[in-house]
Amino acid sequence: MASVTIEQVRKEYGAVPVIHGVSMEIEDGEFVTLVGPSGCGKSTLLRMLAGLEDISGGEILIGGRVVNDVAPKERDIAMVFQSYALYPHMTVAENMGFALKLKGEGKAAIDRRVREAADILALGPLLDRLPKQLSGGQRQRVAMGRAIVRHPQVFLFDEPLSNLDAKLRVTMRAEIKDLHQRLKTTTVYVTHDQIEAMTMADRIVVMRGGRVEQIGRPLELYDRPANTFVATFIGSPAMNLFEGAIADGRFVTASGVALPLPPGYRGEAPKVYGIRPEHLTIAERGVPATVVVVEPTGSETHVLVKLGSTDANLVLRDRVELEPGQPIAVTPDLAKVHLFSEQGMRVN
Ligand SMILES: Nc1ncnc2c1ncn2[C@@H]1O[C@H](COP(=O)(O)OP(=O)(O)OP(=O)(O)O)[C@@H](O)[C@H]1O
Predict the structure, then answer these.
(1) Per UniProt, which keywords does this protein have (predicted)?
(2) Where do the domains of the chain lie, and which CATH numbers do they carry?
């Protein structure tokens, strides 16, 4: 196991910069997810950690050693890809042991480590099968087994669950988390799925356009997003945001709806008001609204409402029976209001 340090790392493809000086410290044994929209540079950053891409500037340290010029196989890392990349003509056991064979390990040692990894991943009964005789989830587990047998200092995962169906993704997500809890190997995990990032990580790194927007524990990011990008990227349905300004002690949206402010708020004048769907309640008195769409999911119901007679919409979560067109009133939980500056930075 080892810590990973990324210091002012930059990447340019020709003249095009795609990573603009990213820094972060990943502790020994930590599980960190890199999350962000398509093209934000998370795979590029992971591939630089793996040594599959050159680093244009800055430094990467694994276990305190600068690895900028160290070949991938000398970095003591193991990477699990989205495509699994299993050899089709090799059995599960051969696939899992192949890297050790290349390193010149003896047959007995390889067999022992393959069996040990197979036990951890419940792959024992499948060791003699070929990849084509496995389900998607089993193939994914073999890909992880191949990483485990090497006892690497760091695991790198690049969207490993994106080829699985929704149900299997949820199961495998828990398996990977459980595996990490048992092995405690430092892990960097790339995903574009914020639920995956939230549920698995000790800490999340939210990226956009080759920059880090925020680093923090999942609930820190959820409860105190540093800016409007993180506020809307983390959480589903997304946080409701309204542009506007303070007038007469309330926040008046651009379309003229007055929203209550947290009592005693004295900070910088906000230009954006945010409230999560679960922090709005339907009450006797509050902001007048009309129900537009009702979406029951079973455990909760998402309701799209129109505020007053404006074109401002918001989403709330509730379990009450509502009909489209029904007039209601909504009140925000004032302890849960998020306020942002004109530049979208948190001010409360
Ligand atoms: N070999 C390359 N040559 C030129 N540009 C590249 C190359 N590889 C990636 N890029 C660009 O670098 C940026 C970051 O790509 P990257 O694959 O790291 O993003 P990502 O966040 O992992 O996205 P996704 O989730 O879609 O995989 C993108 O704008 C991409 O077009």
Answers:
(1) ATP-binding, Nucleotide-binding, Transport
(2) 4-233 (3.40.50.300), 240-340 (2.40.50.140)
Question: What share of the chain has pLDDT > 90, as a percent?
Answer: 76
Task: Provide the 10 A C-beta neighbour count for residue 280.
Answer: 24
Q: Is the CB of 267 under 6 A from ligand 1?
A: no
Query: DSSP E strands: which ranges in the chain?
Result: 4-13, 16-26, 31-35, 57-62, 65-66, 77-80, 154-158, 186-191, 203-208, 211-216, 240-247, 250-253, 258-260, 272-275, 280-296, 301-307, 313-318, 327-332, 338-340
User: Which residue among 13, 19, 157, 208 has the greatest number of ligand 1 atoms within 8 angstroms of its CB, and so is best to mutate?
Assistant: 13
- In 10 A of CB 166, how many CB atoms? 7
The conformation of residue 209, written as its DSSP 8-state character, comes to T
The tens digit of pLDDT for each residue in 14-63 reads 999 999 999 999 999 999 999 999 999 999 999 999 999 999 999 999 99
